[in-house]
Amino acid sequence: MKRSITANYLYNMMYEILALIVPLITTPYVSRVLGATAIGDYGFTSGIVSYFGIIAVTGTVNFAKREIAYNQDNKYKRSILFYEVFLFRTIFTACMLVAYIGFIFIFGYEYRVLYTIQILTVLSWLVDISWFYQGMENFKVTAIRNCVVKIVGTILIFVLVKQQEDLWLYVLILSGTTLAGNLTMWVYLKQYIIKVNWKDVKIFEYTREIFSLFISVIAIQVYTILDQTMLGIIGNTTEVGYYTQAQKIIKMALMVISAFTAVLMPRISSLCGEGKNDEVELYIKRSIGFLLMLSLPMMVGCFLVAERFVPIFFGSGYDPVVQLMQVLSLLFVILGAGQVFGTMLISLKKQRAYNFCVTAGALINFLLNMLLIGKLYALGAAIASVVAEGIVTSLEMHNINKVYKLKKYIRIIPNYLIPSIFMGVVIYICTSIFPADAVFLFLTILIGVLVYFGILAIRKDELFSELLKKGLTVIKIQRK
User: Buried (b) or exposed (e) across 423-458, using 16+ Cβ within 10 A?
Assistant: First the structure.
């Protein structure tokens, strides 16, 4: 039985809001206690660890979410799929664990302690079964588990991390809580799968499809992690620290959009499996509207408040982050759109087109990094990321347009661009009048949010009114 996509979004949003609040609480503390260089050390090493994760999980996440969504109502088939995907991941993760340990002893001398601790991260990939619940459109399990993990991790950071030398403790907390959180999801699994005939379990049955998705995983990782690695090699880990902090703010805010795209793919996959193309197109329309409604004001607001936000949030010594945030603010629209259109391509099984889009982005990102990082360091990496993501999103839109014409949705843009500009004017006035402190920064942001959504309410924006109404309905139902 399918769950309400609004309910799923609210559950996922519950976690994403917490995931947004936690860094807002911990980042100012960690930035001051550890400093930009130590944060850069973690960003550099975690980037290296992620390369092993690319091979460990291959393309199983998107494949599993899509295929389980197709077979939600067939308990035996989805159980078979679970075992096939899990065992496939186990084999590859075990191989990567051996390779990773070898890497630590051969190449990881300078950061051996950090690399060793992050073995826990490798193990967390092995026991992660969140893809199964997402395919089942049950975001309640993952949302609640993630919320508990975030809260525990936050408490441990404040209790244990006290000085720059505690970087290893910080990494241990992040890796350890991730592993513990993934383990807790196994408690609920017996409700969703049944015993199967092991003769029916063919571990390598879908190898070709998984590796088809794997191509896109590699490409995406290239232009989301390679920039940090190249910054650490060509520049230094302090530049990585600046870049990591700027990206962190953008990614935190993008969680609001990511929460929606996470619940979008299983639903579109399920509808495609049932041949309900009219409903698929309806979700595409709502997705584009939702994307514009959130991403445009985020972009405008981030660009305008960055100069006040950085010194208040991160403390002294992070001045370069201001310019980085302003450049990366374009990603609210670009990357947000990329998530939506990329999700649609995967759901529609347009894997070859999706692979081409992200591979082109990866190549362009790499070339631009080579050209710009040596001259501009972190700023060069930021520019390269924006350009690469812009090209990926444009190519994805072109491919979606072949199936569902997007031209008719262009008229939606002014509905949210005009209120965003008006909000931007108000924020600019507030930053010119108010003192530069935390209280007035919060007040400025709050005024901007109220102005923007107030305009949507006055204009009786259809999508905003619908989401507000459904959200209140779901909340009432959950209380009963």
Answer: bbebbeebbeeeeeeeebbeebbebbeebbbebbee
